[in-house]
Amino acid sequence: MQPLRVGFAGLVALAALATWLLIAGPARVLGVDAGNAGVVLLMAAGWGSLYAISRMPDDGLGETMSRGEWRAWLGLAFTLVIAAYSIAHAGVFQGPPLPHNPDANRVGRNVVMLLAAWLILAHVLDARGRDRVQRDERDREIEARGAGAARLALVVILVGYALLLSFSPTERLDWAVPPLLGHLLVVALVVSCAFEYLVIGIGYWRDRR
Amino acid sequence: MGNGTPVGNTIRRLRFERGGMTQQALADASGVTRQTVIALEAGRYAPSLELAFRIAHALGARIEDVFQWKGDA
After folding, report:
1. pLDDT (tens digit, 9 = 90+) per residue, A91-125?
2. Burial of B45 per CB tally in 10 Å (0-12, 13-18, 19+)
3. What is the pTM of this model?
4. Contact flag A136-B34 (C-beta cutoff 8 Å)
5. Is the pLDDT reported for residue B1 higher than 50?
6. What torsion do the CA atoms of B19, B22, B26, B27 make, to the nearest 10 degrees?
7. Do A206 and B38 touch (CB under 8 A)?
8. B54 to chain A nearest CA, in Å?
């Protein structure tokens, strides 16, 4: 069990370093864009987690936690990092339109890379162990609750945007340029996904505690 | 939300009476995950009627011998 714990501690440290690089780190590290380095490190942490799950002993959490629960917690971590990164760098979208704004392009590219990394990771997670039942009616019920919660979160956020834009005096909406509004809509989608994963993870956790 | 359902069951006892059938074997025979069998045995999940029949069939028992109504939990 000791090597497993050391491995998990290493993965957590790697994910923390990646998150710091993405959100609060310097612009460049060793001549490389810190955002790109963060994306690569986070992908490495994600793949390492996948490997750790596959190596987990049968009497450990690997048997107690279902595939859906692993997916939910990993998804929550990824979407929270994406949301935090997007919010931390939202300021760059106040500049000129995207074709003439290299900083916004860089942030947008990193967000897309993070989303793609998570989609690939989730696909691999779903594809493993196809010889056994991976999803059943309980999983579908928990996922349905998560989807309902995500829809509610998205409605609340969008109504909040609508009220903010509708009732704020025009002179206080200088920040609301189209690229930033578009970016904030993407953030709303990512936050609603994070909320979905959170509700799904809690659903599984409640069933086994 | 899945905790404390009004449907009780004797899955665990019946598994042992069937020669120590494992949770995984029952899960495979019933078409569910092992974690769902764990949740069922712990009384934290009430199965659909179809799943209840499949589990009873896998255990070679009648549905009323496997699942019992306990009243409001």
Report:
1. 889 888 888 888 888 888 888 888 888 888 888 77
2. buried
3. 0.82
4. no
5. no
6. 180
7. no
8. 13
**Three-state SS letters, A8-26:** HHHHHHHHHHHHHHHHCCC
Q: Which residue out of B22, B26, B33 would a mutagenesis test of the A interface target, given it has the greatest number of A Cβ atoms within 10 Å?
A: B33
Domain definitions of chain A by residue range: 2-208
Task: Provide the ipTM.
Answer: 0.86
A207/B34 CB distance under 8 A: no
pLDDT tens digits, one per residue of A170-193:
889 988 899 999 999 999 999 999
Burial status of residue A165 (CB atoms within 10 A of its CB: 0-12, 13-18, 19 or more): exposed
Contact (Cβ atoms closer than 8 angstroms) between residue A203 and residue B2: yes
What is the rounded distance in angstroms from the CA atom of residue A77 to the CA atom of residue A42? 10
Q: How far is A137 from chain B (nearest CA, A)?
A: 8
Calculate how close chain A gets to B65, using CA atoms only, in Å. 22
Question: B40 is written with which tokens?
Answer: 């069922």
Strand, helix or coil at A209? coil
Bigger pLDDT: A70 or A146?
A146
pLDDT (tens digit, 9 = 90+) per residue, B5-51? 889 999 999 999 988 899 999 999 999 999 999 999 999 999 999 99
Length of chain B: 73
